[in-house]
Amino acid sequence: MTTRALHVASELYPLLKTGGLADVVGALPPALIERGADVRALLPGFPPVVSGLADLRPVANLGSRFGAAPVTLELGTLAATGLQVYVIRADELYTRHGNPYLDDDHVPYGDNAQRFALLGWTAAQLAQHADPSWAPQIVHAHDWHAGLAPAYLKAAERERGKPVARSIFTVHNLAYQGIFPAQQFGQLGLPADFFNMHGVEFYGQLSFLKAGLYYADRITTVSPTYAREIQTLAQGGGLDALLRERAHDLSGILNGVDYSIWCPANDAALPARYTSARLAGKRACKEALQKRFGIAQKSDALLFGVVSRLTEQKGLDLLLAALPEIIKRGGQLVVLGTGDPALENGLLRVAQAHPDAVAVERGFDEALAHEIVAGSDVIAVPSRFEPCGLTQLYALAYGSLPLVHCVGGLADTVVDASLENLADDLATGFVFVHFTPDALQGAIRRAFALHARRTEWKATQQRAMRQDFGWGASAEQYLALYRGLV
Ligand code: ADP
Ligand code: GLC
Question: Where in this chain does the record put each Glycosyl transferase family domain (predicted)?
Answer without folding.
Answer: 292-459
